[in-house]
Amino acid sequence: MKKIIYSRFDKRKISTLPKVSFPGRIITITTEEEAEKAVEYLLSCDILGVDTETRPSFKKGQQFKVSLLQVSSKDTCFLFRLNLIGITAAIKRFLEDTTIPKIGLSWHDDILGLSKREQFVPGWFIDIQDMVNRIGVKDLSLQKIYANIFGMKISKTQRLTNWAADILKESQKMYAATDAWTCINLYEEIKRLETTGDYELIVMPEPENVSNNNIANPEENNSEK
């Protein structure tokens, strides 16, 4: 039986889905030496998922630099605390690497944010948003895409927490690791669907235009993941 996917996933169904969480090791990186060892390990992997987190701003005109870079293999996720160590030489080498595919979502926004800490030449990055368009999916948020492809919910409850806190909570670590790791899952499954054609696309009606006076749903904003 072919997998059923939708051009647009009904966001009202997401709350009813089972929650997905990263099942592997989560390692927090707070020193240059730790970053060097982590990058050495990551560049020995065959595929990686990537994402970033930034301390949210609740004041007009106030902006913060990227606080966290999370990079996951299939079983281990490293959380680089950029607010503590910045972009070290090893991290820059990772970001410029062209040998290992690194899968993210709306990654051009992450690159812009990271480049405000340190200029670098982006290496091999693949954006999930570009991939889903090829199979007819119009949604841009990670939560909707994952619900559509896997029928599981990525929790977003930690998104607006303080990513520059002295110590990250376990719930923040799990959130960050899950976002990076799920990008690998999506990449591999979308590639499989593209190769085999083993899916049926249900085309949903386009959403009605909403007034500019309405408050936008943050999950509809691709830059917010």
Structure write-up:
By secondary structure, the chain is α/β, with parallel strands linked by helices. It is 33% helix and 17% strand. The protein has helices at 32-42, 82-85, 89-96, 107-115, 128-134, 142-150, 170-196; strands at 3-6, 25-29, 48-54, 66-72, 76-81, 102-104, 125-127, 199-202. The strands form 2 sheets. Strands 2-5-4-3-6-7 form a 6-stranded mixed sheet, sandwiched between helices. It has a two-stranded parallel sheet with strand order 1-8. α4 links the parallel β6 and β7. The longest helix has 27 residues, at 170-196. The chain is globular. Mean pLDDT is 92; it is low at 210-224.
Give a short overview.
By secondary structure, the protein is of the alpha/beta class. It has helices at 32-42, 82-85, 89-96, 107-115, 128-134, 142-150, 170-196; strands spanning 3-6, 25-29, 48-54, 66-72, 76-81, 102-104, 125-127, 199-202.
Main features:
225 residues, alpha/beta, six-stranded mixed sheet, two-stranded parallel sheet, disordered C terminus
Range of helix content? 25-40%
Distance between the termini: 31 Å
- Mean model confidence by pLDDT: 92
* Computed Rg: 18 Å
* Proportion of strand residues: 15-25%
Please report the total strand number as a whole number. Answer: 8
Give, in spatial order, the strands making up the sheet with the most strands. Answer: 2-5-4-3-6-7
Total number of helices: 7
What general outline do the C-alpha atoms trace?
A: globular
The structure class reads alpha/beta
What are the segments in which pLDDT stays under 50 over at least 5 consecutive residues? Answer: 210-224
From the structure provided, what is the oligomeric state, counting identical versus distinct chains? single chain
List SSEs in N-to-C order. Answer: EEHEEEHHEHEHHHE
For the largest beta-sheet, the strand count, sense and barrel status come to: 6 strands, mixed
